[in-house]
Write a structure and sequence with these properties.
The chain has strands spanning 5-7, 10-13, 18-23, 32-39, 46-51, 57-59, 67-72, 77-82, 91-99, 106-108, 112-117. Strands 2, 4, 5, 6, 9, 10 and 11 form a seven-stranded mixed beta sheet that branches. A four-stranded antiparallel beta sheet has the order 1-3-8-7, with no helix packed on it. The chain starts with a strand and ends with a strand. It is built from no helices and eleven strands. The protein has 118 residues and is mainly beta.
Amino acid sequence: QVQNVESGGGLVHAGESLRLSCVASVSSLNIYNMAWYRQAPGKQRELVAMSNSDDSTNYADSTKGRFTISRDNAKKTVYLQMNSLKPEDTAVYFCYAQHKIFLTYENWGQGTRVTVSE
């Protein structure tokens, strides 16, 4: 199965910004709900933000107001703009795609690492 491809991670200082990108391995992005998840060392994977096929968005409480998810359906690409980064945002960030009707049609990416220093 071909995976989504994330990019844009790196090492930044607290308060700085990063933008993650995900090229989704799907037939047509506009029929997929997309999400960013993250997994910090020793912790479970958690939802960061969702971009639904109807253009609605949802955010985790911890990222609301700091992170923005967006999509470009023509480029099959989803973005996560992360501002005012905190050390607790340090994690591997994963891109997830799920068909809006056929829920078993889903893809994950390999992840991109984000490290936020004090």
